[in-house]
Amino acid sequence: MAIIPKKVVERFSKTVGSFQRVLKTAKDRDVNEADTVSIVSDILAKVFGFDKYLEITSEFAVRNTYCDIAIKVNGKIQYLIEVKAIGLDLKEHHLRQIVEYGSNQGVQWVVLTNGISWEIYRIRFEKPINYDLVCSFNFLELSAGKADAQERLFLLCKEGLRRSVREDFYGHIQSVNRFTIGAIVLGDEAIRLIKRELRKLSSGIKIENSEIEVILKNEVLKREVIEGKAALKAKKRVRRISGKSSNKSRVSKPISELPSESV
Fold first, then answer.
1. Are 129 and 232 in a shared domain?
2. Count of domains in the chain?
3. Higher pLDDT, 179 or 94
4. What gap in Å lies between CA 162 and CA 49, rounded to an integer?
5. Which of 2, 44, 127, 156 is 20 to 30 Å from 52 at the Cα level?
6. Whole-model pTM?
7. How would you class 186 by CB atoms within 10 Å of its CB: exposed for 0-12, middle for 13-18, buried for 19 or more?
8. Angle between helices 229-251 and 178-185 (to 10 degrees)
9. By C-alpha distance, which of 30, 71, 70 is closest to 49?
10. What is the DSSP annotation of 78-100?
């Protein structure tokens, strides 16, 4: 977890609770999108620390349309934010909308929110354009004094931009997640380790790697962890990194350990 400056933690303590009350009232009144944008702009200024007049731009032009909010610091757009009315649930087509804005503008980080639900995405500029959900939270459920809430809020803070907090957090969740762990468990190295430990339990037992793999897939791991796009992506990443590591270890062997050539 990133070290959050004391002044930021104090700002969370002073502002989060008051905005939770504002959001509850707005939800009860079912305010429209324009009013929700106004509340979100205030949250960006008072909770996340951006200058409301210099760094928060409303109705940011993207080609022939407009994105609700752009966060621009030192001349560079840091986030594009699409705001929906507080009473609307965030939908897939809303997400496609903000991802399209980001990809058209060359902005990698985008946020989708209705004031209460916040979703932070990182766009991958590949063909076709893709994206990853980095973090999501319900503003009404946050406890400003808890570390996990502070960590999520800090991702959107102005102070976090200077510390590469969002990139570090993204790198962490790309590695430490159920899909990556599932891919590692099903990898050759892990299966060999399991096989070795099973042989310790009963000497002379005959076990095939394929037998262990079938048990892991059918009886140990959840299907959602080893199937689907996220699982396939994790599997490819683990194989790529493992391949690099094995190549590196072969290259780094001292000459004395290399096999001698026959003359």
1. no
2. 2
3. 94
4. 13
5. 2
6. 0.76
7. buried
8. 60
9. 71
10. EEEEEE--TTSPP-HHHHHHHHH
